[in-house]
C-alpha cells in the first residue's frame, strides 16, 4: 500500500525520536523515517533498549517500528525519498569565535541544509524542529534556494514544546502547535500540509500559524518565561531562608492568583536541561546584537540567579557540616536534570558534584536512569565517586544526602533504615523539597530544605 504521506526526520534525539514516534502512532497510514549520523543511536532505536528513557515511549515505538516507523543511518536515501523533512539536529551553544558561550552553534543545521540541497531532485518542505535563534531559517532558506537544480524548497518553523519526562503526553495533547510560514500563497500551501498532519489528533483551534520569525522567537521566549519563573521563586527562596518564611506557603499563595498560575513555582536547586540556559543565552545574544542592552541584562539575570542558587546549595552544605567536607561522604539522590528522564544535560547535579569534589568530599551517586550519563559527565574527575543504583546501598556509611532530582521513589524510601545506616550526625539537604521534613527531623536527621527554616538538633 502506498503511504498517504512520507515523512523524514533528520536527528534521532530527545526531540526527533519521540515526535516521530507519536506521528507514526497517530497516523498509521503515513510512513515515517528517522535518520541520524550516529549509527549507535540508530541501532539503539532499532533495539529493545531505546537510547532515551521517556515514560510511555517504548510501547509506541515497538508497535509502529517496522510498520510505518523506520530508523536508519542512510540520510541521503532518506532525503531523496521523502518530500516532507523535519530537521531536529542539535543546536548547542557555540564554544568558539563570535558569540562563544552565547549564540547557537549552527554548524549541524548548516551541514544538514547543504546535504538536503545536494540530494534533492524534487520539491520539498523543510520543517525546522530544532530550537534556533530568529532569522536562522532565513539563512537556511538562502542555502537551499541558491541552487542550480531549480528545486523548490519551502521552509517552515515548527518549534517543539515537549518537556522531557512528559514528552509522549505533551506530544499527544499539546497546549498548542505552532507553525511559522511565509505569508505567501506558496508558504500557506506548505503550512497547510503540516496543519493536515497535526489535525489528525490535535484540535484545529490549538494549531497556531504565524510568520516564521515570530514562531522561532516564540520558542525562545516561552522557555525564557518558564526559566524566569523558576529563577524568580528561587530568588525568593533565598530570602525565605534568611527570614524564616516558608517558600511552599509563599508559592501556594502567589500561584492561586489566576493571573499568575501555580505551575513552575517549585523552588529547587536550580534549573537544568538542554533548553533553558541555551535559549536564554540566545535571547541575550540577540538583544545585544540589536543594541538592546537593558533587555539583555534582564534575561541574563535569570541565569545569574540560577548559578547563584546552585552555589548557595553547596555553600549551605558546607556551612551546615561544620565548614569542612574534606573526606566526608555525600550521597547524591538523583543526577538527572529532572525526574522521569535519564538526561543530565546542564543538570545542577554536575555543577554540584564538581564543587563538592573540589571540597575533597567523596560522592556516592544514585539515580534510577541517569547513571550512564553521570559517568560520562564526571569522566576524568571521578576518582572519589561511586555510582550505585540501589539507594539503600548508596547511603551506607555516608554523612549526608543531597536530593538533586525529584524522583518519586525518593519520597517513599524507609528513612529510619537509611538514618541507621549513616554516619551521625546525619544530614539531608533537600534540593527539591520533596521529602517530609518534620518526619525526617523526628527520626534524627538534620534537615535543610530550600527556602524554609532548617530543622536541626544542634
Ligand atoms: C523545557 C520546556 O518546558 C519545554 O517546553 C521545551 O520544549 C524544552 O525545555 P525541559 O527542559 O524538558 O522542557 O523540562 P522542564 O520541565 O521545563 O524543566 C526544566 C528545568 O526546570 C528542570 O531542571 C526542572 O527541574 C526545573 N524546574 C521546573 C524547577 O526547578 N522548578 C519548577 O517549578 C519547574
Ligand atoms: P535534541 O534534544 O535537540 O533532540 P539531541 O542531541 O538529543 O538533541 O539529538 C540531536 C541528534 O541529531 C543527535 O542524535 C545527533 O547525532 C543528530 N545529528 C547532529 N547532526 C546531524 C546531521 N548532520 N545529520 C544527522 N543527524 C545529526
Summarize this structure as a short list of keywords or feature phrases.
458 residues; alpha/beta; Rossmann fold; 2 domains; six-stranded parallel sheet; 17 helices; binds uridine-5'-diphosphate-xylopyranose; binds adenosine-5'-diphosphate
Describe the structure.
- The protein has 17 helices and 14 strands.
- By secondary structure, it is α/β, with parallel strands linked by helices.
- The chain folds into 2 domains: 5-210, NAD(P)-binding Rossmann-like Domain (Rossmann fold), CATH 3.40.50; 246-458, NAD(P)-binding Rossmann-like Domain (Rossmann fold, 3-Layer(aba) Sandwich), CATH 3.40.50.
- The strands form 3 sheets. It has a 6-stranded parallel beta sheet, with helices on both faces.
- Helix 5 (107-119) links the parallel strand 4 and strand 5 (124-128).
- The N and C termini lie far apart (74 Å).
- The model has no long low-confidence stretch (mean pLDDT 95).
- Bound molecules: uridine-5'-diphosphate-xylopyranose and adenosine-5'-diphosphate.
- Adenosine-5'-diphosphate binds next to helix 5.
- The site of uridine-5'-diphosphate-xylopyranose (UDX) has 19 residues, from helix 9.
Amino acid at each position: 500500500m502506498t503511504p498517504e504521506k512520507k515523512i523524514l526526520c533528520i536527528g534521532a534525539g530527545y526531540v526527533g525520536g519521540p515526535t516521530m514516534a507519536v506521528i507514526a502512532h497517530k497516523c498509521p497510514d503515513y510512513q515515517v523515517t528517522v535518520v541520524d549520523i550516529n549509527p549507535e543511536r540508530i541501532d539503539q532505536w532499532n533495539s529493545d533498549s531505546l537510547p532515551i528513557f521517556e515514560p510511555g515511549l517504548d510501547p509506541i515505538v515497538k508497535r509502529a517500528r517496522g510498520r510505518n516507523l523506520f530508523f536508519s543511518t542512510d540520510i541521503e536515501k532518506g532525503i531523496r525519498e521523502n518530500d516532507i523533512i523535519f530537521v531536529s539536529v542539535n543546536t548547542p551553544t557555540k564554544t568558539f569565535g563570535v558569540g562563544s558561550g552565547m549564540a547557537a552553534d549552527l554548524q549541524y543545521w548548516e551541514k544538514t541544509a547543504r546535504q538536503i540541497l545536494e540530494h534533492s531532485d524534487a520539491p520539498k518542505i523543510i520543517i525546522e524542529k530544532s530550537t534556533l535563534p530568529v532569522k536562522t531559517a532565513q539563512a537556511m532558506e538562502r542555502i537551499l534556494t541558491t541552487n542550480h537544480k531549480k528545486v523548490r524548497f519551502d521552509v517552515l518553523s515548527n518549534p517543539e514544546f515537549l518537556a522531557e519526562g512528559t514528552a509522549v503526553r505533551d506530544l499527544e495533547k499539546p497546549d498548542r502547535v505552532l507553525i511559522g510560514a511565509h505569508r505567501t500563497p506558496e508558504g500557506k500551501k506548505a503550512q497547510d500540509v503540516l496543519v493536515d498532519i497535526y489535525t489528525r489528533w490535535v484540535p484545529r483551534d490549538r494549531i497556531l500559524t504565524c510568520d516564521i520569525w515570530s514562531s522561532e522567537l516564540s520558542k525562545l521566549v516561552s522557555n525564557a518565561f518558564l526559566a524566569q519563573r523558576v529563577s524568580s521563586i528561587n530568588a525568593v527562596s533565598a530570602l525565605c531562608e534568611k527570614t524564616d518564611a516558608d517558600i511552599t506557603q509563599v508559592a501556594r499563595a502567589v500561584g492561586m492568583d489566576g493571573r499568575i498560575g501555580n505551575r513552575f513555582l517549585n523552588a529547587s536547586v536550580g534549573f537544568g536541561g538542554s533548553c533553558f540556559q541555551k535559549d536564554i543565552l540566545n535571547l541575550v545574544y540577540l538583544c545585544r546584537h540589536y543594541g538592546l542592552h537593558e533587555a539583555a541584562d534582564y534575561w541574563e539575570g535569570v541565569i545569574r540567579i540560577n548559578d547563584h542558587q546552585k552555589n548557595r546549595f553547596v555553600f549551605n552544605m558546607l556551612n551546615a557540616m561544620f565548614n569542612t567536607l574534606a573526606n566526608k561522604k555525600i550521597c547524591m539522590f538523583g543526577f538527572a536534570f529532572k525526574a522521569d528522564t535519564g538526561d543530565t544535560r546542564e543538570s545542577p547535579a554536575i555543577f554540584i558534584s564538581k564543587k563538592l569534589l573540589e571540597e575533597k568530599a567523596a560522592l556516592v551517586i544514585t539515580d534510577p536512569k541517569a547513571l550512564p550519563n553521570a559517568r560520562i559527565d564526571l569522566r576524568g574527575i571521578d576518582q572519589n565517586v561511586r555510582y550505585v543504583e540501589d539507594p539503600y546501598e548508596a547511603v551506607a556509611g555516608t554523612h549526608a544526602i543531597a536530593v538533586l532530582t525529584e524522583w518519586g521513589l525518593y519520597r517513599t524510601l524507609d528513612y529510619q533504615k537509611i538514618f541507621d545506616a549513616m554516619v551521625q550526625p546525619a544530614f539531608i539537604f533537600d534540593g527539591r523539597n520533596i521529602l517530609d521534613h518534620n518526619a525526617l527531623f523526628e527520626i534524627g536527621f538534620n534537615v535543610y530544605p530550600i527556602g524554609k527554616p532548617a530543622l536541626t538538633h544542634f
